[in-house]
Q: What sequence folds into this?
């Protein structure tokens, strides 16, 4: 495998993750290969239990593979101690979750700045916070606590928090899963803009074709394996993508290297 590939923002090779539950072994991922190029937007789709979150967690260094390699921004995650891995994640990866994961007692501004405080940066530039919040459409919501914000606003705060350390890579697990479809689409548009205008590399786990259609490429997981990688520009709309997705889920497709 060439060094060039390993230097991609995300490079996963032969990744297997097996969970043990008593006597039982569950192969959440089996021999997964995935390369994500700089500044691209990839959606990971698949039925419930197909391994989407496990793959995202591997790429985020939140869990380690049972076998295989994960390189992020050219760094082999296996060589990092847990402490170094946390530091590395803080600098390189922004994480966004379905349930926002905001701290209820803190204002939006403090929620956004939390990763910087955790990294020991005591006095982040207020001008950069204001610019980031304005960019995400929450400039006038910074003093509000999460319970005074709509779901869409809370997710924007969570995305701002993910971007606070200016990471090159944003990993989002079902970022629209708790939102109505109109709000969800506005979050997708925002992620698309972060990719197009700021060249961030974005990975979104979703089971919704209406979310995946915003990406450049969709990889479909089935039983822990990538069974399809497709370019979204080959599909006129989310409905066409949904029809193809259903076909793939229903059929036994060959395993691909992506
Ligand atoms: N910590 C764990 N311990 C045991 N099994 C696990 C663990 N985490 C995930 N699994 C199992 O691994 C498989 C893949 O789970 P994963 O959460 O990655 O799927 P998913 O595609 O994200 O599903 P969903 O769409 O429902 O969130 C499932 O069978 C799940 O039960």
A:
């Amino acid at each position: 495998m060439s060094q060039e590939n390993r230097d991609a923002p995300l490079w996963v090779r032969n990744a297997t993750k097996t969970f043990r539950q008593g006597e039982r072994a569950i192969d959440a991922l089996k021999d997964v290969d995935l390369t994500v190029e700089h500044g691209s937007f990839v959606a990971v789709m698949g039925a419930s239990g197909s391994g989407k979150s496990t793959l995202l967690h591997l790429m985020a260094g939140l869990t380690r593979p049972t076998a295989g390699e994960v390189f992020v921004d050219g760094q082999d995650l296996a060589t990092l101690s847990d402490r170094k891995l946390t530091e590395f994640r803080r600098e390189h990866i922004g994480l966004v979750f379905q349930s926002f994961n905001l701290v209820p007692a803190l204002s939006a501004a403090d929620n956004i700045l939390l990763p910087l405080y955790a990294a020991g940066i005591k006095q982040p530039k207020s001008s950069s916070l204001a610019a980031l919040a304005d960019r995400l459409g929450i400039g006038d919501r910074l003093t509000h606590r999460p319970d005074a914000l709509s779901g869409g606003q809370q997710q924007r705060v969570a995305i701002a928090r993910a971007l606070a350390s200016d990471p090159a890579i944003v990993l989002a697990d079902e970022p629209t899963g708790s939102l109505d479809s109109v709000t969800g689409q506005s979050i997708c548009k925002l992620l698309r803009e972060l990719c197009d205008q700021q060249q961030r590399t974005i990975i979104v786990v979703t089971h919704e074709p209406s979310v995946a259609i915003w990406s450049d490429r969709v990889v479909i997981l089935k039983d822990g394996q990538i069974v399809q990688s497709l370019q979204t520009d080959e599909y006129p709309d989310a409905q066409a993508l949904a029809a193809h997705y259903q076909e793939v889920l229903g059929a036994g497709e060959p395993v691909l290297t992506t």
Summary: Residues 19, 21, 26, 28, 46, 48-54, 207 surround adenosine-5'-triphosphate (CB under 6 Å). Residues 39 and 200 are 5 Å apart (CA to CA).
